[in-house]
User: Fold this.
Amino acid sequence: MIPAFLLPILLFLGLGSVGCALLALLHSRTNLLRTLLLSPVLGCLAVVISAFMVNRAGLPVRNFAWYLAGLWGLFAIVTLWWRKPKLPMRRFLPFAGIFILALVLTGRPLLDFGYHWLSYSNDDMANYVLAADRFLNNGFFDPPAADDLLFHADITQYFWFMHAAGGARPGSELLLAWTAALTGRKTAAIFMPVMLFLHLCLISSSCAMLLGNRRNRAASLLFGLLLAFSPIVTLGTLYQLIAQVFGLALFCALVVFLFRRFTAASRWSLWRDAALAGAAAGGLWIVYP
Assistant:
């Protein structure tokens, strides 16, 4: 049984490994410290996009969550073994300290209440949880049964109109459904641990955005520290604005990929960079356009 306080850390490390493998494979010209900082949100994006595609094909998230985790885990192990990126762990340690500080400052109630901590429990959180339950047990386009709607037998089915018919962004709900399937816990119980994981992703991606070169490292560290103490950033997490926090983390990654010189050594190198930028931009449409 995974303690609630450890779940954000495990997601950060596990999905960070996937993102690091993706960047090692596709983005050879970024500095390695920035690679480490961008990795968690890129790994999270990879899972969300693949879950989105499989769920749209008609499979409930519950049926493929472990297979998806296994495939991405195998990809990370093989790619990192093959590419062998020399990651600057010593230079990353101060950033890791900031992430732990941010987790303690914002997520300390997890130590007291564990999976029972529901924070504000605002109406958006209820909508995300109910929609995640629909993805967990249904394919994306599976139509609701008439009795479920007429007699309120399954209130999650109302969200078919939001996502399948209305085209609303489903990324955060898919991430919740995938995490719930892996942990075996209810989506409401894992909401705040996932929220804190995305809180760390936002701080990490923001630091990467400022890290143009080694001379910017001090500024990047200071910015990360300010974000860890920021009341407005903390409020966004505690108030359960999951799509906004996830979307801002993705936006910072997109800024890193686009605001630089595209002077590729080869056409293949340019295609690799374009694939990352395209994935980050496409992910924004799924998570928070």
Summary: The mean pLDDT is 93. Residues 7-287 form one domain. Residues 247 and 284 are 6 Å apart (CA to CA).
